[in-house]
Amino acid sequence: MATQAVIDFTAGAVGGIACVASGQPFDTTKVKMQTFPKVYRGFIHCFSSTFQQVGVRGLYKGATPALIANISENAVLFLSYGLCQDVVRFVCKMEKGSNLSDIQKASSGSLASIFSAMAICPTELVKCRLQAMHEMEASGKVASGQRSTVWTVVKTVMKTNGPLGFYQGLSSTIVREIPGYFCFFGAYELCRSKFAQYKGTDKENIGMLPLMFSGGFGGACLWLVVYPIDCVKSRIQVHSLAGRQEGFRKTFMGIIRTEGISALYSGLTPTMIRTFPANGALFLAYELSRKFMMERVGG
User: Fold this and answer.
1) How far is the C-alpha of 295 from the C-alpha of 55, rounded, in Å?
2) CA atoms within a 13 Å half-sphere pointing along the CA-CB vector of 269
3) CA 173, CA 151: separation in Å to the nearest integer?
4) Is the distance from CB of 29 to CB of 267 less than 8 angstroms?
5) Which residues of the chain have pLDDT under 50?
6) In contact, 173 and 121? CB cutoff 8 Å
7) For the purposes of burial, counting CB atoms within 10 Å of the CB of 249, is it exposed (0-12), middle (13-18) or buried (19 or more)?
8) pTM for this structure?
């Protein structure tokens, strides 16, 4: 069991690296549009403006904390996913190691997301602030001309709010993760099952492209369900840099009251474009590295 946990943890970390490498520019665009929806006319305008103002580096702003966030989140997520499957088997009074249905795997993923939320919240806060720093300075919410790096953001949070400051937006992160990862793992497993059924094989041998499509489909389902919650989380984490930010409910109602429901979906386009390559790469890297390690341990 300990060996299996290490394999799941490592494979999740490898998947996290692949996810960031393929999707970071789209994630940067998403955060900018979520936190400053009136500044940009749409995805193309935001993407091209960022490129013109700060170049390719601007699109990869926050890549370091994004890497740390994705490695830690996916390592903890897939470690917990394996352990939570055992919990589901116990609750359903099934034998250890027996196959779970797609719904049972979705429930395991939803339960595992609670643990990954604790791992991702601090690093995601730093990432979001770095990604939206240019707009925060341009809007006058923070003093301009400051050098923004991972370390300066970390120091500011520690100085202003202490260690608990890194968990601003935790409640909205957990609210996002629980239903989101039910859809994520549920759609991924369901899609793999359909491919296996169509090709007359098992899930493990459907091939690279169907595997990547299944991962992308799972990611698309996740974001369609939880995107408004993620928008609120980004607002809390970024705007709290300028002072005390209201909690989840008040921020959510404030956006609807002053900007309308459409503001909650600002940045959805780059997110949906990103989800297929990023989550496809995540699951491909996870499944292949996991299979490789399982064969080495088994051999």
Assistant:
1) 43
2) 15
3) 23
4) yes
5) none
6) yes
7) exposed
8) 0.78
